[in-house]
Design a protein that fits this description.
Elements: H1 17-30, H2 37-50, E1 54-58, H3 61-71, E2 79-83, H4 89-96, E3 100-104, H5 115-121, E4 126-130, H6 141-151, E5 154-158, E6 166-167, E7 170-171, E8 178-182, E9 196-200, H7 203-212, E10 217-219, E11 222-223, H8 234-243, H9 247-265, E12 285-288, H10 292-301, H11 329-335, E13 338-341, H12 349-360
Parallel strand pairs: 2-3, 2-4, 4-5, 5-8
Antiparallel strand pairs: 1-9, 6-7, 8-9, 10-11, 12-13
Length: 366
């Protein structure tokens, strides 16, 4: 008898399917596909869900970061301190804005950027600090805000993996001057393609971001500055509006599955990174082992899909060589040990038990 594979993720609509299909039909029947009522509605609804004052929908999470930097006037000659452990798009956004990424090492347990390391890297060209709330785990936002305030720096939160997360009871994305979100299909709130948003409390920043996402226009055919375009289309906005009401329950389900993993993996030969805040939203559930590749092979043989996020620390990517990055030893070590387990709202308890049992039966050590 063949055992069904435990997939790493399942992106097909489930309980939201009828609402998603209705939303898409609504856009098609209306015949308005760019910067229309669906985008307006999603921006208002996402602001309410996240505690933001203003939301500007754009084409991707990377664009959300890049446009925010540009809107703040950060570019050539400036430096932005960010984490050494993230998707490469975090640092690419800094370079696309014309600035230099400066990589700070991570806290070895929290796996987000270490505020002390950030503080030590501040120099005369530093313009901003860009922490990442990685895997859904909030970075130490109060400590990072203190560093930014002490040095007069902009704090830009990368919330692309942290929809609805909180840090010490405060919604992520509401402490800094701006926050970037991604709606890539695998995110906790995912579209049917790329999508992103910037959240901010600053009215002037909001106005400039709206110009920059739309060719630098501040009125029809009146372009006040050079810009491309980065617009969330109406169909993606409608899909996100249909799914947003489910996000709170999906987040609770992720937390429940993560708790099951934590209980079941206790005493097994792997290390589970601790949760530092109940506001963790578990975009991913990574475990650590120095025998990562062997464990991945073992789980594959047991019909369990896993992925590695992220195998290379950002300073080691060729794309950032011109930034002359410093070596970050903690991030380098961690990148060789992390393995992401299946975790998504429709994952069954039986599947989680299978994963736990397979991990426990392996011969790897932490």
């Amino acid at each position: 008898m063949t055992t069904e594979t435990v997939t790493w993720v399942d992106l097909r609509p489930q309980e939201d399917a009828a609402d998603v299909h209705a939303a898409i039909r609504r856009v098609i029947d209306r015949g308005w596909f760019v910067l229309g009522p669906e985008v307006d509605g999603f921006e208002a609804e996402f602001s309410r869900a996240t505690g933001a004052e203003r939301t500007i929908a754009v084409a991707s999470g990377t664009d959300a970061l890049t446009l925010t930097l540009r809107a703040l006037g950060i570019g050539a000659g400036d430096e932005v301190i960010t984490t050494a452990l993230s998707a490469a798009f975090t640092a690419q956004a800094i370079m696309m804005a014309g600035a230099r990424p400066v990589f700070a090492d991570i806290d070895p347990d929290r796996l987000t950027v270490d505020p002390a390391a950030v503080d030590a890297l501040v120099g005369p060209r530093t313009a901003a600090v860009m922490p990442v709330h990685l895997y859904g785990q909030p970075a130490d936002t109060p400590a990072l805000a203190a560093v930014a305030d002490r040095h007069g720096l902009a704090l830009i939160e990368d919330c692309c993996q942290a929809h609805l997360a909180t840090c010490e009871g405060v919604p992520v994305g509401t402490t800094g001057i701006a926050a970037a979100y991604s709606f890539y299909p695998t995110k906790n709130l995912g579209a049917f393609g790329d999508g992103g948003a910037v959240c901010t409390r600053d009215a002037a920043l909001d106005a400039r971001l709206r110009r920059l996402r739309n060719g630098g226009q501040d009125g029809r055919y009146r372009h006040t500055e050079p810009a491309a375009h980065s617009r969330l289309d109406e169909i993606q906005a409608a899909v996100l509006r249909a799914r947003l009401p489910y996000l709170s329950d999906w987040t609770a389900r992720r937390r429940a599955l993560a708790a099951r993993y934590r209980d079941g993996l206790d005493g097994t030969p792997v290390l589970v990174p601790p949760a530092f805040d109940p506001g963790h939203v578990y975009h991913l559930f990574p475990i650590r082992t120095t025998a990562r590749d062997r464990l991945q092979d073992h789980l594959r043989a047991h019909g369990i899909d896993t992925l590695v996020h992220y195998p290379t620390p950002l300073p080691a990517h060729p794309a950032f060589a011109d930034a002359e990055p410093d070596h970050c030893p903690v991030a380098t070590a961690v990148c060789g040990e992390l393995l992401s387990m299946p975790l998504y709202p429709t994952l069954s308890e039986a599947a989680v038990s299978r994963v736990i049992g397979a991990v426990a039966s392996s011969d790897v050590g932490a």
